[in-house]
Design goal:
Helix content is about 55%, strand content about 0%. It starts with a helix and ends in a 12-residue tail after the last helix. The protein is mostly helical and about 160 residues long.
Length: about 160
């Protein structure tokens, strides 16, 4: 009989030795967003959701949003760097749309990427086509040829 009691005690002790669930309020780590993990300023979760809802592909990988956020981060940094340098050249402290436009149009790759875009409240680049400018050679010849021109009948002598 004592053997039975011993076996019962073991089974009771097994039942009684169940580990308690850890206190969730103290031990739980605070959630960290994917944007913070990826060290980007763009929302990784939202980009993942937009890629899935956009139906661009049948399947979207979990890291697609991270990659897209990284690309957007890089392009934004390039825009701000170019616009900031133009702003400093004009001795201004605030980046205006004009500075962004001048910076984009001055950079070959950014200009190619943004060729179909128009920035609001920013003027166009100051550019006059060479064919529209008067020729310096022709203007010098015309000054000298005025003396040898025939008399215009509509003007008095």
């Amino acid at each position: 009989p004592s053997a039975k009691q011993g076996s019962n005690q073991k089974s009771k002790s097994r039942r009684g030795s169940k580990k308690m669930a850890p206190d969730t309020s103290k031990d739980r780590k605070t959630p960290v967003s994917n944007s913070i993990k990826a060290e980007t300023i763009f929302p990784v979760g939202r980009l993942n959701r937009m890629l899935k809802q956009g139906r661009y592909a049948e399947r979207i990988g979990g890291s697609a949003g991270v990659f897209m956020a990284g690309v957007l981060d890089y392009i934004t940094a390039e825009f701000m760097e170019v616009a900031g340098s133009i702003c400093l050249e004009h001795n201004m402290k605030i980046i205006a749309p004009r500075h962004m436009n001048l910076g984009i149009r001055g950079d070959r790759l950014l200009n190619k990427m943004m060729s179909t875009c128009t920035l609001i409240e920013s003027p166009v680049l100051p550019n006059i086509h060479e064919n529209l400018l008067p020729d310096k050679k022709k203007s010098k010849k015309m000054k000298g040829s005025k003396k040898s021109e025939a008399h215009d009948a509509s003007q008095p002598l």
